[in-house]
Write the C-alpha cells for this entry.
Amino acid sequence: MRRTKEDAARTRAAIVDAALSCFDRHGIAGSTLDQIAAAAGVTKGAIYHYFTGKREILHEIREQVSLPLLDAADTALHAGKIPALERVERFLLEVLGTLENDVRKRRALAVMQFKCEYVDDLAAELAGSVRKNERLVGAFRSAYREARERGQLAAGLSPDIAALDTTIFLSGLVRLWLLYSPRQPLRKEAKALIHAHICARKKGHPKMPREMDPGSLRLSHR
C-alpha cells in the first residue's frame, strides 16, 4: 500500500511538472491534455484520475508557489528580535533570491504572469489570488505596525498604506524581473531597489542608494 501511494504521488508530480513545461512552451490555452500526457509519459486517463482538467493542474502549480511564499511571509514578518523594517527588507530579498535561484518557481511565476488568461473556468483562480494577496498585506501590516509602535516608521505613513504599497512594489518587482533579460541592469539593481523602498519608510529618511542608470529600464526580450 505504501509503495502504491508513493507511485501515485510520483505520477501526480510528473503530471504537474509536464503541465508546467507545456504551459511555459505553449501557454495555458495552447496546451492540451494530450500534450501533457505525452510529456509526463502517462495516458490522458491517468491525468483525469488526478485532475479534472487544466484548471486544477494550474491551481496545483499556483499552490506550490504561493503557499510557501505566504508561510515564509508569516514567519519572517511577524514579531521577532530583528527590527521590523529590517525583517521586511530581508523577506523581499528572500523573494528575490527565489527568483534568482529556483528555476521551477521562476518558470511557474512566468506562466502565471504572462501565459495565462484568467477567463472562463480559470476566472475562479483570481478569487484565490485576492485572498492570498490579502494575507500577504496582513503580514506586511503587522510588521509596519510594530515599526510605528517602536518609532521607526516614517512620520505620516500609516501601516495600512505602507503594507499596500509594499505589496504593490513586490508584485511589480517580480513581474518586471521576470520580463527583463538576465543581461538587463534592472536585475542587477533589484537589491538596491528593495533597499531604497525600505529606506523611504524609515523615520528620518536615511541616505538613499546611488542613482540608477536610466538605461537599465530599456526593455529587451528574455
About this structure: The chain has a mean pLDDT of 89. The two ends are 46 Å apart (CA to CA).
